[in-house]
From TrEMBL:
Subcellular localization: Cell outer membrane
Protein name, entry field: TonB-dependent receptor
Primary localization class, coarse: membrane
Keyword Transmembrane: yes
Keywords attached to this entry: Cell outer membrane, Membrane, Receptor, Signal, TonB box, Transmembrane, Transmembrane beta strand, Transport
Membrane topology reported for the UniProt record: Multi-pass membrane protein
Length: 932
């Protein structure tokens, strides 16, 4: 299937289109191919092979994959790394992205018809906003292209091209389900196209509904032994600490009450709670889309073009019920044990999961609106033709979120406070004669059902968050041939764009005020604008000579002036050389950049609980440094101070604060590619493309960890101390322990550096037709030889190729092999999707490491470093098709036909496997498409 070199892929687009589309306008197709604009260049030309590697997926190839979202298709391609998708439950938001080279979704630019698409506050594009039913083909540029498209095109560009020249009507239906009889999917779409000599209109509508899969319904994600992937220390009945009258509970014994009300020591094996079955493994969503596209020829050389889209996504994530932790139950509470009432001693550190709520449900209602309108045409100067276009784009995203299962901390404190049995037999908050109106006492020490619905209604609340992102742009482009050179015409393209971006996020008032049991978040609001100019040249040098059938250069530069940080200039240079007709050698060098997003610049503060080792703690490896000791002494921290937590890295009891930074500068990058395309004339239908690539990103926007900030403050240079020492505070709010770091700001900074290198190989062979039908093979592979991250310029480089980090896999090899067969009205496709094995850190020591980790005895220069290996995975997909006599196509298929399970991970934060792998189980589907 269609991961093809650029020239071959685009030349085959009409063949892959539906028969009705091809029959509707064969002359128009030929004209389009005569002068075409290829992703990565604004110059229209007949020769579509550029100096940059591109591959294309046609509409027919997308339908052969048996999925309901373009995101599912793009996340399978070999160059994609780790990106959000519907398998992300904890940490997901219903959106799906694409992350070329594993460099992040915000560094992959997504276009629709060559124009920017609506983004989220972080600058990434949710691919679920683009219905698959409107797509004609997808072109993926596997190289940086900031000189042509501006910000974000660092890792590459995805250009989604909608259907054109469609006349008639078409309807499709899709039904699918996993072999466990869950995860049902259904999709329906309808398209109508009409045209005449001067105008054309295309209308489309689609509806997709994807049901959930529960984590408890798959063995790997259900929790329990041997790894207890969903085990939590907070369950029910609630537990508490007996602090024996001391001020600190760090090392004291935790208890629960048994069914008879007796105090027994808490045992995680008995009183812990397996949260895994309460979570979604595959999250549900509904998408409804309406699309319209129209053209009108005002004159022979002047056309008006407009397109508009409305898309609504309703999605949900479900987590186990809220663990309410760290509260104090008054000794005067009706539900306090009698011995504590007698002693007048409060129960501290009370932890209890409020399972009576049924869980925490996060719901999104996202509405996207897109409009583009413009004029395009051509004019002649002498014998030369120049193409031009001007247009206006407006994109808007409105999102409303509802979160159920949260609690008001003030109400909880009242409900945990003094309470009594009134004369009417009802337990009430407060004291006789001083009842707290509306308050319902809570019994956090009881079993499931001990918290009444009235208590839940009093203390709980539903959070209402909202956000909006608006993007507007005005564009003008012109292209054509300037002058004839000995090897051909000198082509050019030039253009201007003005763009304005604005966004806001308004959290629920309780959350903004820090009164929720969830993490506090502050509002976000900000905007910026920019003006850009670009120039691109295609310079022919040699043609039709021995060892130089073709030699030309492409040169481009773009000037961008941003309202918030200033200007930047980025340029590129590429070449194409054909020493013979069968061989094209190509290369490219380009500069790129990514401007900070609205959330990077203006995002509201967010609470985060971090783990760190206090440099002033006596167990810290830095404590013996005289510079560190002097600073600790100046802060009044005694030499024998021990950070609570028995000498381990401690997670904060008090939340630290993530902050944005309106002084951020753009990330910068340099990209290089070098490769060849070989299409031997002696082997008809065969071609192979091999490309080397290297991407280096500097000044990458990153959030330094708490440990990094503290280490730089205490043990860094004078400049580092000035930058980081003002970000923390000791003992301001921590009662009883003035030495604890209880406040720390963690801002975004331009600190990191990334370097990625590897090879892409695409082999395609369309065999000659035989008596048994037509056969074709496409094999597309990406190999990552280097993926290096450096936290700062003076930090030790971290090699990630071949490693697994939690929810961030770095496969060395991703490969897709597709075998396709057609004979008459019948067809079949067999696909194989391969991910190579990766290694993770072994989280165990001793006997557990020997039992569960594949390399428990691994040792490096730094000491013991055991690892565990996650094996390679190959998924097999199959589809059978039949074109009926009544102009319809029926397809049946199965993905993961051999029921391959994902590799079990010991460090995956949820489900015991990474969400980039398929949900376990065979998936079956039926597609029907009727053309009228």
């Amino acid at each position: 299937m269609g991961l093809l070199p650029a020239g071959i892929a685009i030349a085959l687009v009409p063949a892959f289109a539906s028969a009705q589309e091809a029959d509707a306008a064969p002359a128009q197709d030929a004209t389009t191919l005569d002068r075409i604009e290829v992703t990565g260049s604004r110059i229209k030309r007949a020769d579509v092979e550029t100096s940059q590697p591109i591959f294309s997926l046609s509409r027919a190839e997308i339908e052969k994959q048996g999925v309901t979202s373009v995101a599912d298709v793009l996340q399978r391609i070999s160059t994609n790394g780790a990106a959000l998708n519907s398998t992300f439950n904890n940490g997901g938001d219903g959106s799906s992205g694409v992350s070329l080279r594993n460099l992040g979704s915000s560094r992959t630019l997504v276009l629709v018809n060559g124009r920017r698409w609506t983004t989220q506050l972080d600058g990434s594009v949710d691919l679920n906003t683009i219905p698959a039913s409107i797509i004609e083909r997808v072109e993926v540029l596997k190289d940086g292209a900031s000189t042509i498209y501006g910000s974000d095109a660092i890792a590459g560009v995805v250009n989604i091209i909608t259907r054109r020249n469609f006349e008639g009507a078409e309807a499709g239906a899709y039904l699918g389900q996993y072999s466990a009889q869950d995860g049902d999917r259904q999709a329906y779409d309808f398209s109508l196209g009409v045209s005449n000599d001067r105008s054309s209109v295309l209308l489309g509508a689609s509806y997709v509904k994807e049901e959930a899969v529960m984590a408890g319904d798959r063995k790997i994600s259900a929790g329990g032994p041997p790894f207890f992937g969903g085990q939590s220390g907070t369950g029910f009945p609630g537990s508490f600490v007996d602090n024996m009258g001391t001020a600190s509970n760090a090392d004291d014994v935790r208890y629960v009450l048994d069914a008879q009300g007796n105090k027994v020591v808490y045992d995680s094996a008995v009183h812990g709670y397996n949260t895994a079955p309460d979570n979604y493994l595959l999250t549900p969503q509904e998408r409804t889309s309406l699309f319209a596209q129209a053209t009108f020829d005002i004159a022979d050389n002047l056309t008006f073009r407009a397109e508009t889209l409305y898309n609504q996504r309703i999605s949900e994530q479900l987590l186990a019920a809220m663990p309410v932790t760290g509260l104090t139950l008054s000794s005067q509470s009706y539900y306090a044990p009698q011995e504590y009432k007698n002693l007048g001693r409060d129960l501290i550190g009370v932890n209890r999961r409020f399972q009576e709520t049924g869980g925490r449900s996060f719901n999104q209602d996202v509405k996207n609106f897109h409009f583009y309108g413009g004029l395009e045409g051509f004019f002649n100067v002498g014998e030369r033709t120049f193409d031009w276009d001007v247009g206006y784009r407006y994109d808007r995203t409105d999102q409303n979120d509802l979160t159920h299962g949260l609690f008001n901390v003030q109400a909880l404190n009242n409900a945990y406070g003094p309470s009594f049995m009134d004369t009417d037999g009802v337990v009430k908050c407060g004291a006789p004669g001083a009842v707290i109106a509306g308050c319902v006492p809570i019994n956090p020490l009881g079993g499931l059902g001990s918290i009444s619905p009235e208590a839940l209604n009093y203390a709980g609340f539903t959070a209402h968050d909202s956000s909006r992102v608006v993007s507007k742009s005005y564009t003008a482009n012109i292209s054509g041939d300037i002058v004839d050179l000995p090897a051909g015409p000198l082509g050019f393209a030039a253009g201007y764009e003005h763009r304005a971006e604005s966004g806001q996020f308004d959290p629920d008032a309780f959350i903004a005020a820090g009164l929720s049991t969830g993490n506090a978040r502050s509002p976000t609001a900000g905007s910026y604008s920019l003006d850009e100019f670009y120039l691109e040249l295609a310079v022919p040098v040699l043609a039709d000579l021995p060892f130089a059938k073709l030699l030309d250069f492409s040169v481009a530069t773009r000037y961008s002036d941003f309202s918030n940080f200033g200007n930047t200039l980025n340029s590129k240079f590429g070449f194409r050389w054909k020493p013979m007709d069968d061989l094209l050698i190509r290369g490219n060098w380009s500069e790129g950049f990514r401007a900070p997003s609205i959330s990077n610049l203006y995002g509201g503060n967010t609470d985060s609980f971090e783990s760190y080792i206090d440099p002033c703690s006596s167990h810290s490896p830095l404590r013996g440094n005289p510079q560190v000791a002097a600073r600790c002494a100046a802060e009044g921290v005694p030499a024998n101070y021990v950070q609570p937590g028995n000498g381990a890295s401690r997670q904060t009891l008090e939340p630290f604060t993530w902050t944005s930074n309106d002084q951020l500068q753009p990330e910068t990058s340099t990209s290089k590619t070098l490769g060849f395309v070989y299409s031997p004339s002696w082997l008809t239908g065969f071609d192979i493309a091999v490309d080397w690539y290297k991407v280096k990103i500097e000044n990458a926007i990153t959030r330094p960890e708490a440990q990094f900030i503290l280490d730089k403050c205490y043990a860094g240079t004078a400049g580092e101390q000035a930058a980081y020492c003002g970000l923390y505070q000791r003992g301001g709010t921590s009662a009883g322990n003035p030495n604890i770091i209880d406040k720390l700001e963690m801002p975004l900074l331009n600190l990191a550096q990334y370097e990625v290198e590897g090879y892409d190989v695409t082999l395609n062979y369309r065999l000659p037709e035989t008596a048994y039908g037509k056969f074709s093979i496409t094999w597309d592979t990406s190999y990552t030889s280097k993926w290096i991250a450096t936290a700062t310029k003076d930090s030790v480089a971290e090699e990630r190729q071949g490693l697994y980090l939690p929810q961030d896999p770095y496969w060395r090899i991703k490969s897709n092999l597709y075998l396709d067969w057609t004979k008459g009205d019948f067809g079949a496709t067999w696909g194989m999707r391969y991910k190579s094995g990766i290694d993770e850190e072994c989280p165990f020591t001793g006997a557990d490491a020997q039992e569960y980790c594949s390399d428990p005895n691994r040792v490096t220069a730094d000491g013991p470093a055991p690892r565990n290996h996650l094996g390679a995975v190959t998924y097999h997909d199959i589809q059978f098709r039949y074109n009926t006599p009544w102009n319809a196509t029926v397809s049946v298929g199965s993905n993961n036909v051999f029921d391959k399970d994902p590799p079990l991970s010991l460090t995956a934060p949820y489900n015991m496997f990474d969400p980039q792998y398929d949900v376990p189980g065979r998936y079956y589907y039926l597609q029907y498409r009727q053309r009228f």
